[in-house]
Amino acid sequence: MPVTTIAGRDVHVDDEGFLTDPSEWDRELAAALAEAIGIEMTAEHWKIVEFLRADFATEGETATTRRVQAVGGFPVKQQFELFPKKPAKKMAYIAGLPKPRGCV
């Protein structure tokens, strides 16, 4: 598994750059990941990221946009506004989680 340096430290990633060890994640790393893909984190961004991490901890897989809406209460439209074009992929990337099932 590849190792890369982000925010001044080594982290384990897959071939697409997603963290493979969610325990290596923290908010500083998330901010660096977001910046790398052109996302400026706001309080609304952090709410979704925190939901994703909490949901992953209980469910064992990364929530899809549909689940983020149904369980997290964040409408899909809002997800696209905050994380344009591919919200599920971008949210998971910033949250330090695997790409959601079904994402290409």
UniProtKB/TrEMBL annotation:
Alphabetical list of PANTHER family matching this protein: SULFURTRANSFERASE TUSE
Subcellular location field: Cytoplasm
Name listed for the protein in its UniProt record: Sulfurtransferase TusE
Molecular function in Gene Ontology: sulfur carrier activity; transferase activity
Family listed: Belongs to the DsrC/TusE family.
Alphabetical UniProt keywords: Cytoplasm, Transferase
Chief place of localization: cytoplasm
A biological process term (GO) from this entry: tRNA wobble position uridine thiolation
Stretches assigned to coiled coil: none
InterPro entries: DsrC-like_C (IPR042072), DsrC-like_dom_sf (IPR025526), DsrC-like_N (IPR043163), DsrC/TusE (IPR007453)
Keyword Lyase set for record: no
Positions annotated as active site in the UniProt record: C103
Lineage top rank: taxon: Bacteria
A GO-annotated cellular component: cytoplasm
